[in-house]
Fold this protein.
Amino acid sequence: MTYPLRTIQEDGDAVVVLDQTQLPRETAFVRLTNLEEVAHAIRVMQVRGAPLIGATAAYGVALGLGAAADDARLTHVLEVLGATRPTAVNLHWALARMSAVLAPLAAAARRQAAWREARAIAREDEAANAAIGANGLPALRAIAARKGRVEVMTHCNAGWLATVAHGTAIAPIYAAHAAGIPVHVWVSETRPRNQGLLTAWELRQAGIPHTVIADNAAGLFMMQGKVDCVIVGADRIAANGDTANKVGTYLKALAAQAHEVPFYVAAPVSTIDFACPDGAAIPIEERSVDEFGAIDSKVANPAFDVTPAALIAGIVTERDLRPAHELAGLKPD
């Protein structure tokens, strides 16, 4: 098997995804054939990462229209998929795009059009993430020019596993490695789901030097001068640049500010929610207490936190790298 691969691939009248709940222990694939299987895959995080969730949901619409494609069925399919994860805006962006394409069509034409549009969303995500890598590379190259190498810290997993291909936060790291720039990655374990281990798994496949650290060790390494920059992904970016990402991101941004370490967010433009004015308006998903394991105390398990735009040195999209408070120019016409 060659890595990195495309995380969602068509297989006849189905799609095949890498089951991320089995990683890094086992590499397993799941074949999704209907609406319920796609909704389950998103909900339990067999697929995860905002861009991949969006692409998977688009394919879920195509699969959900297999038996019928009348208005009632289309509405039902969109509602089922829309209820799976609240924070990742790419999910709702992809469903809105599918609805805009399919709703005006006759029922007989919808299924074929749905497959066509889902393919387009997946292709565009792949291209956007490759461009994110190219646009983030100059920041890493500049650090390497001064220091001879780059020490990057990241949180959660925003590599190719979280997208259709290439990744978001890890895309510039892949680009730097491919350009021959010596790069080392500090990988935060990211509890309670330990999704940093997915980043470590990815980096191992790519031969990129990395070290897994406990979440709460991040500030220490920054204080010791071992981190040149932080790059994270995003599940939703508000119009003012406030950014929701896996819980624990905000603490890293605070530590980065305290130690003058630039903190970057990398995400496609589709992750920017221009209808959301600021971070206070971003819904925060509360995950099951079961993710903590057996515990007899009351548990709070928010999946995300919000990093204010003032703590973000720049946001890297497929368009460019720009200050977090200057996103208005990226708004679609």
Remarks:
- The mean pLDDT is 95.
- Residues 11 and 288 are 32 Å apart (CA to CA).
- The first helix runs from residue 35 to 43.
